[in-house]
Design goal:
- By secondary structure, the chain is of the alpha+beta class.
- The chain has one domain: Methylpurine-DNA glycosylase (MPG) (3-methyladenine DNA Glycosylase, Chain A, Roll), CATH 3.10.300.
- It is 14% helix and 28% strand.
- Strands 1, 2, 3, 4, 5, 6, 7 and 8 form an 8-stranded antiparallel beta sheet that branches.
- Strand 3 and strand 4 form a beta hairpin.
- The longest helix has 8 residues.
């Protein structure tokens, strides 16, 4: 028996790749409250997604795929349900889940999550920080889960890496939207979605 309050992954509730092969903003909204789960070193690492950003296939100049396919953004042009990981400022990594059908060039950036399991692994990578800060911010989330450029094209629909559906969706009144953080173009687009009550959010602005 697991102690009360301990998170227990349920692989049978893993979202299929078809979940991600839909309109990007819809996927981003429905990812809130889901749990990202990775099997590593004999244990599960898990964190509930509370903040994401959508990068649209059309009319979105902040999207890495806006000007077409390159070696760097090639994962974005595959069918949804795989990782697109990129380097930020040379040393940090950010993890996205590719969305829509092959050839579209869209993804959802994983910005922040609430740690649920695998804390020893998270802390080994992130150091002595508060629980709520372990996966706060896209670079910290990717670091906690150990995502690197070698994870490009990796499926998030496997036994070792999957996204678990929530027991119930996040209520609409708890979901907020705002412009994305740190983008140079497309600043007016309200494509950052987050659970307004979470202590793990990466930053402002909030609405």
């Amino acid at each position: 028996m697991k102690p009360a309050g301990v998170f227990v992954p349920s692989p049978e509730r893993a979202l299929p790749c078809e979940f991600f092969q839909r309109e990007t903003l819809k996927v981003a909204r429905e990812l809130l409250g889901t749990v990202l789960i990775k099997w590593e070193s004999g244990i599960y690492c898990a964190a509930r997604l509370v903040e994401v950003e959508a990068y649209l296939p059309e009319g979105d100049p902040a999207n890495h795929a806006f000007r077409g396919k390159t070696k760097r953004n090639a994962p974005m042009f595959e069918a949804g349900g795989i990782l697109y990981v990129y380097a930020l400022y040379g040393r940090h990594r950010c993890a996205n889940i590719v969305t829509e059908e092959a050839g579209r060039g869209a993804a959802v950036l994983l910005r922040a999550a609430e740690p649920l399991a695998g804390m020893e692994i998270f802390r080994r990578r992130r150091g002595d920080v508060a629980d709520h800060a372990l996966c706060r911010g896209p670079a910290n989330l990717a670091s906690a889960f150990g995502f690197d450029l070698s994870d490009n094209f990796r499926s998030v629909c496997t036994a070792d890496l999957f996204v678990q559906a929530p027991s119930e969706p996040v209520p609409e009144e708890l979901i907020a939207v705002s412009p994305r953080i740190g983008v140079g173009q497309g600043k007016e687009l309200l494509l950052r979605l987050f659970v307004r009550t979470s202590a793990c959010l990466s930053g402002s602005p909030r609405r």
